[in-house]
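About this split. The held-out portion is used to measure sequence recovery: a designer receives only the structure tokens and must propose an amino acid at every position. Recovery is the fraction of positions where the proposal matches the reference. Here is one held-out target exactly as it appears in the evaluation file.
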């Protein structure tokens, strides 16, 4: 459930990535660039669902589990976070490669700086792209990465820990009790080993490589607390996300919650009680033990399968557009 990501935040990083892509294309040789490019990115079939366009080398039916998962995700985010796509926004491109080997080849060719992954999300400006492959966890991977894409379209750049916590929360769906129980069991084990939650510590994490599996679990737990409280928690989170898009220096969520009497002990009570606890109630004192960016959100590698696109513009033109050059 935890995954690692790479964040490139400045113009020099964008230039370096573009140089790497261009070098990879040129290394293939002028005579084979078109053939190699078309073989790496699936373009033979496409299917559209809501804001997503899914590209693959084999047909993907409109009622396939992958397509339905994206439709359900869009509805879930709209219901829980008022996260709705601008009707004139660029579509979110989803590339589903044939299998694990094809996906690893794509990574080596275009993104050699990344270790083997199962899926990842890349964004720059208005461009949002998800890459994955046909595997046994395709729907879960799509929901996780597409959550990043939808959140970015609605709220812009949000804090790293919250971005990952929301993606963890929505990857299985808010009504998946088996997934929630499994997470609660792991968090209970964390508590037994002496771990205590701290949102301020999560807020200090600026690089995805700093996040441990336990940090992913805690991020999910805070989101579960907030979205589990329909009376106030959801409104607080939505207001924070909306304010974060417009404000230059928005208050951290931990400060907002502390003013309402919500702290680590509130979270522990919520996790131990099962039913949602109000985020405006504090059980007691806790004793502890904007420039546009490119963000790559990716997932650890797993086993394989795939999904579907038609003829596309030239590869150089598409890469230039994707990178905003």
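Reference sequence for scoring:
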């Amino acid at each position: 459930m935890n995954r690692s990501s790479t964040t490139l935040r400045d113009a020099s990083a964008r230039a370096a990535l573009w140089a790497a892509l261009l070098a990879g294309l040129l290394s293939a040789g002028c005579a084979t660039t078109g053939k190699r490019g078309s073989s790496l990115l699936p373009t033979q079939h496409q299917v559209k669902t809501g804001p997503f366009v899914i590209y693959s080398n084999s047909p993907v039916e409109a009622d396939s589990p992958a397509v339905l998962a994206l439709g359900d995700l869009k509805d879930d985010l709209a219901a829980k976070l008022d996260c709705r796509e601008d009707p004139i926004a660029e579509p979110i491109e989803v590339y589903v490669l044939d299998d694990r080997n094809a996906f690893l080849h794509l990574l080596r060719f275009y993104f050699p700086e990344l270790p083997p992954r199962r899926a990842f999300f890349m964004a720059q400006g208005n461009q949002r792209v998800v890459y994955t492959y046909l595997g046994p966890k395709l729907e879960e991977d799509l929901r996780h990465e597409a959550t990043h894409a939808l959140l970015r379209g609605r709220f812009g750049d949000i804090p790293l820990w919250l971005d990952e916590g929301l993606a963890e929360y929505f990857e299985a769906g808010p009504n998946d009790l088996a997934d929630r129980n499994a997470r609660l069991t792991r968090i209970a084990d964390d508590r037994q080993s002496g771990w205590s939650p701290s949102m301020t510590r999560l807020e200090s994490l600026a690089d995805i490589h700093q996040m441990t599996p336990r940090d992913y679990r805690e991020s999910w737990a805070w989101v579960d607390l907030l979205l589990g409280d329909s009376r106030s928690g959801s409104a607080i989170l939505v207001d924070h996300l909306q304010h974060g898009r417009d404000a230059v220096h928005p208050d951290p969520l931990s400060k907002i919650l502390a003013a309402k009497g919500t702290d680590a002990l509130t979270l522990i009570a919520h996790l131990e009680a099962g039913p949602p606890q109000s985020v405006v109630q504090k059980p007691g004192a806790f004793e502890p033990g904007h420039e546009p960016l490119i963000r790559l959100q990716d997932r650890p590698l797993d086993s394989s399968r795939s999904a579907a696109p038609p003829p596309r513009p030239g590869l150089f033109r598409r890469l230039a557009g994707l990178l905003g050059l």
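Annotator remark: The chain is about 50% helix and 15% strand.
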